[in-house]
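A further point concerns the way the authors explain their paired sequence and structure data. Since the whole study asks how a given chain folds, the encoding of that fold should be made plain. A single example would do more here than another paragraph of explanation. An entry of this sort, consisting of the sequence and the corresponding backbone structure tokens, reads as follows:

_____
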Amino acid sequence: MYFYIYVILLAIDDVVLSLAGPSALSAAEPHKPVDCVRAGDMCSQSPQCSSRYRVMRQCLVGRDRNMLANRECQEALEVLQDSPLFHCRCKRGMKKELQCLQSYWTIHKGLADDDEFYEASPYEPVDSLRLASIISGMHTSTTRSSPQCQDSSRTCNPCLDATKACNLNDVCKRQRSLYISYCNKGSGHPSSEPCSRNRCHKHLRQFFDRIQNEYGYGLLFCSCRDAACAERRRQTIVPQCSYEDKSKPNCLRLRSDCREEQLCRSRLADFHTNCRVSPEYISSCPNENYQACLASYAGLIGTVVTPNYVDSSPSDFIISPWCSCHGSGNQEAECERFLLDFRNNTCLRNAIQAFGHGTDRPKPATVPPTTSVKPEPEMTANATTKEKMLRAENYPCAFPTCSLEYGDKCSLMCEDPPEVLTIPMTRGQSSSLTDHAQLWIACLTSLLGSALAL
């Protein structure tokens, strides 16, 4: 008897698994974008996609955007929106970053409006858990190596300690010496070669892209108690070459120049995505994520809109790109808005201060709300999620056959038409048809067991 029951239940389970296979899995798992280099390779293998991609690139050549009103350009864009290129993203500092960004903006520049103030980031989200663990480890090692910093009566210079830590690492020391050598040319020596800002910016970008974050962030965001420490922090990027100029350009002009370069445009969009002040969050940072804001700020260094500390104030610091809003005319409000995203950015300030004091922590991932069944109080805390899920008596409304044994309970709980339940899973995924089948089988097993006992 038990053998036949087992065969019947196994057959039912196999049928349900086959029905709930690929479709249920695709519905449960969110779409994961590929990087745009790989998406471009996938597009090149499709004659329709590759031809439309070439058309779209021609549509965006030069500064004239009127070609987007062309019917052929619109048709090409519509086809590409259904390709992997539309959902692709890039990684900051990746080997083929410029090629990746070119593929991304070929699609999204056609969708964007030139008057749009904020643009979506083309980069993958920052792994805040990994970055936070790096930062936590850095603060731990700093505390062990610099016990005097815990004593407010003694001299403490975390920026100097960060420089020493960088010099003890071969990669950091080499990359730092390289950008300093290029950015220091022409500063203080009449016979030396003039500073090349483009080369200085290039090696600054390479420094922050190639070294471990713990070293770069220690130099950029070290916490200071006095002006000497704050000045060392301000001098980190060699501002006389990488930042300052004879005169300050208009900020809107600076932003316009940045948007003409795919790399700068991408880094600026990433900064706005991760550091834009969000009043609905306690920290003022999107998703309470300090780490993403720090990474986006570091990504801007070495671009047209390179930001820096304005002065040597240790705590009441101001950060700004080298620009002003003089001569903005009727666009002054828009210019001030752009400038205040740096100078009066509470998200960025909180993130830097949290880093300096070692208080930043990984932020939990945001999980969209789902309709779930709350476990019964009698369940023990040690029971696993799956064990709770398979207890059919706690979910009688999910199974019409359960009313045979739990009729009273069902009549009280299922007065309204039954809804599709979302059973809690161990990995936070939505329930599928397979989950309901397992519950159904568990209930049926309980009923058959009771019948046999009779």
